[in-house]
Design brief:
- 33% of the residues are buried.
- The protein is of the alpha/beta class.
- Strands 1, 2, 3, 4, 5 and 6 form a 6-stranded mixed β-sheet that branches.
- The structure holds iron/sulfur cluster (SF4).
């Protein structure tokens, strides 16, 4: 997901509707309810109006309802959520909205600058770019980080399925009506095939059978999202591919992040936004760190942190969330500084990389020559490996 797609906020009528704001916005007080607007609510209202015109004059109660409908034609109807959707809604909508101090952003920026200036001074060809992926790699196995930096990236069906699924959900956020998952996947494939991104030649090179395989896999992911995530309301201010960046050390260091989906918004110093990363595959220990990095960038951008960080696992339809605190932001700032220092040591000062075996060894280009990685993936084989 490399492009910004900002979704329009609530319409004027939605914004002015107290009920709509109270019930549809994710800026909830604890115990508030979120009511889902069903797609057929306006149509149902029109039917009620027509039917009301045919009722006899003495039906005062029906008339009152019709007048109410005319004042607020999009009055939400309570949608029936399945248990998975209700779980997500409960998790996203009912945590507290903490307030943060005015000068938090300034303090964070000052501390980051102070720590980063001497590190970045070692870089001969700035600017240095820092992303969640780089931080995650350099805090994992340093040997793999260096090997990945040198090897050429290659697209594959498993990698492409995540990219296409993200694009399809991005389209879902912006699109009106009720598109099916397959409609969304077709639309996403068409756009990605011809938008001059690095994935375009790969998609164009697929055989019919490979293309059908990819579409089928992504359709499954998108259907999981549609069926297990509550229908997105415009009053929740959904934004797909929300970008943040922060520059440091006279623009010699640039930190960038793109959040898959954000909901809600802050009120003054009161946190309100929920950051959601959509994940294919299984939960990994680095995933919470990715979102914490985004939370730091958002705090540096807006001055008020997000309220909640959610990794949403598409295969399992499962949210894993974490509330944002000031301590979490400070520990994230420290992790960023440590990561930048490691980046410079490894890529500029040529420090010998350390190894850290994990489940990720199976994707490492060094696996065939790495005893630690082979032992990690096959403990029985470890007995036959040469020992240093
Ligand atoms: S196989 Fe594992 S331990 Fe070895 S270099 Fe790769 S990631 Fe590191």
């Amino acid at each position: 997901m490399n492009e910004d797609t900002e979704v329009a906020g609530p319409t004027a009528s939605e914004s002015s509707s107290a009920e709509s704001t109270k019930t549809g916005d994710l800026q909830l007080e604890s115990g508030d309810d979120i009511t889902i607007v069903q797609d057929d609510a306006p149509r149902q209202t029109a039917q009620n109006e027509r039917s009301g015109q045919n009722e006899q004059a003495g039906q005062n109660e029906q008339t009152a309802q019709n007048q109410q409908s005319q004042r607020a034609p999009a009055v939400p109807q309570k949608a029936r959520l399945n248990p998975a959707q209700q779980q997500v809604l409960d998790e996203l909508g009912t945590t507290d909205r903490p307030s943060f101090r005015d000068d938090l952003r300034d303090h964070l920026r000052h501390e980051l600058e102070e720590s980063l200036v001497p590190i970045v001074a070692e870089v001969p060809d700035p600017p240095l770019f820092v992303s969640k992926r780089k931080l995650s790699m350099v805090h994992g196995c340093e040997a793999r980080f260096l090997a990945d930096e040198k090897s050429e990236f290659e697209w594959s069906i498993p990698i492409a399925r995540g990219t296409v699924a993200h694009k399809a959900i991005e389209i879902l956020v912006a699109r009106r009506g009720n598109p099916t998952p397959l409609d969304l996947v077709d639309d996403a494939m068409s756009r990605l095939e011809f938008d001059e991104r690095s994935i375009s030649p790969f998609l164009q090179s697929l055989t019919e059978a490979e293309r059908a395989d990819l579409v089928g896999q992504v359709n499954d992911l998108v259907a999981n999202f549609v069926e297990s995530f509550p229908p997105l309301q415009r009053t929740w201010v959904p934004v797909a591919e929300s970008r943040s960046r922060a520059e440091f050390c006279d623009d010699q260091l640039s930190m960038r992040g793109v959040v898959d989906l954000t909901l809600g918004r802050p009120r003054g110093n009161e946190a309100g936004r929920v950051l959601i990363d959509l994940k294919t595959g299984r939960p990994q220990r680095d995933h919470p760190h990715d979102l914490r990095f985004y939370a730091l960038l958002e705090t540096l951008k807006l001055g008020v942190p997000p309220r909640l960080l959610v990794n949403y696992y598409l295969d399992a339809g499962e949210p894993r969330s974490e509330a944002v605190t000031e301590d979490l932001l400070w520990s994230t700032a420290k992790r960023v500084v440590d990561g930048v220092a490691k980046l410079v040591e490894l890529t500029v000062q040529n420090r010998e990389p350390t190894k850290r075996a994990s489940g990720g060894c199976r994707f490492c280009p060094l696996l065939n020559e790495c005893a630690e990685g082979q032992a990690q993936l096959d403990p029985d084989r470890n007995e036959h490996l040469p020992v240093d």
